[in-house]
Amino acid sequence: MLARIVQVMVFSAVPWVELRLAIPYGITKGLHPVLAFLAAVAASWAVILPVFLVLDLCYARFLARYPLVRWGIEEVRARGRGYIERWGVLGVGIYVSLPLPGPGVYSGAILAWLFDLPRRQAALALALGVLVSALLVTVISTGVIAIIRRFV
User: Fold this and answer.
1) How many CB atoms neighbour CB 63 within 10 A?
2) Where are the domains of the chain?
């Protein structure tokens, strides 16, 4: 069981996979939904500050040289601008809470960094957004997996 918890945590910490796939993965592998939820949230929370640090230290010096990285940053800016303009720091949390592909903790942290939002407030908004997203993903996944198991 510990191996499955670690797998969920690793998947949750991987960009583009994050908890939207990690939680259903954990549930289908036999983890209790609450355990999958807790593991995914913990791993997602753990990446918030390192993302800010990497952006601060590495973006201008190294990462901005790569067109694909610049394109990705601009995509995040375009998708999240409305949330920030409408709700400010809370918009980051709302953006991250959407259980859809794309707006996860990484893009939320990038968004907060791009708009130079206060770090503590942005980190709290990100943490709350992760919590809401994980709750939604867990509830939806548990229901969908139960339906699939019933018919298969």
Assistant:
1) 16
2) 2-151
